[in-house]
Amino acid sequence: MSIKKSAILGCALIAAGLSAAHAADWSDTYIGYRYGTSFGEPFNNEDIAKNIFNLGHVSGYKYGTNFLNVDMLLSDSKDPASPGSSSGAQEIYVVYRHTLDLGKVTGRPESFKFGPIRGVGLTAGFDANTKDDAGYNSKKRMLVAGPTVMLDVPGFLNVSILQLWESNAPYNKFSHTATDRYDYDPHPMLSLAWGIPIGSLPLSFEGYANFIASKGKNEFGGGTKPETNIDMQVMYDASSLLGASKNTARIGLEYQYWRNKFGNDHTGAAGSGAFAKTPMIRAEYHF
After folding, report:
1. CA-CA distance, 217 to 203, in Å (whole number)?
2. Could you tell me the CA-to-CA distances from 36 to 40, 114, 183 in Å, in that order?
């Protein structure tokens, strides 16, 4: 399939998911907070503290599921908002995914169940961010599309092979240089997402893992590297302590392993900031 046709398919699936959101059979919307002190940014060898506030939503309807997450990331002064500033950078990062369940669409769910697989789907979505910082000021835009298999486990474990179409248009505040929007080479990503209860305990193991191929030359003519981003957490259902219904209030510990962040080589000029290993605390309140 050509790049143009694949992108059109992705946009169509996104539109289908957005139009179906109002007809959800079930949904879960939540606000969250997490905090860590050893975040990394490429070309910055400092350990950075970040407060992260998020709004999340997941829902299911007749033919599939929707997932939306919006993070607001507030850095400390080690990731400054501008050259010489004592104020930290601010970033908004948005992720949306829609998965169309082929068994539900065809009305033959048993046809897509075999071995350890309980379903097959098509996933599409986008990432978008804007960051106000001293050096790069990212304005990422990315479409994703590809097949997903849903494994037969307690909770869920979805495995997707997605094609990525990514671009950026940074602005360097040190040199006051704007870069025209630049399209990286289309490239694939192996993506896992899971949420698995731990026995009968009020605990769950959740997260995602993205293994991303090189995206060719960057906007400055340098090479990019394969990227690994694994983010996982163990969450405790603390709802009973508050007299609330199950899974209303959740707290836990989170860990992120991010090698060659955004495709930057951590063994080269991007330095140790392109290889973050970040423990965090996390809290969520579900509506």
Report:
1. 43
2. 11, 41, 32
Report the 10 Å Cβ neighbour count for 83. 11
DSSP letter string over 243-275? TPPTTSEEEEEEEEEEESGGG--TTTTTGGGGE
Output the pTM of the full model. 0.91
Q: Where are the alpha helices (DSSP H) in the chain?
A: 3-20, 102-106
CB burial of residue 251 (10 Å; 0-12, 13-18, 19+) = middle
Among 235, 218, 210, 157, CA closest to 183:
218
Any residues with CB less than 8 A from the CB of 218 and at least 6 apart, and which?
182, 184, 224, 263
Task: Name the band, by pLDDT with cuts 50, 70 and 90, for residue 3.
Answer: very low
Which pLDDT tens digit goes with each residue over 120-161? 999 999 999 999 999 999 999 999 999 999 999 999 999 999
State the number of CA atoms in the 13 A half-sphere of 79 facing the CB: 25
CA distance 173 to 175: 6
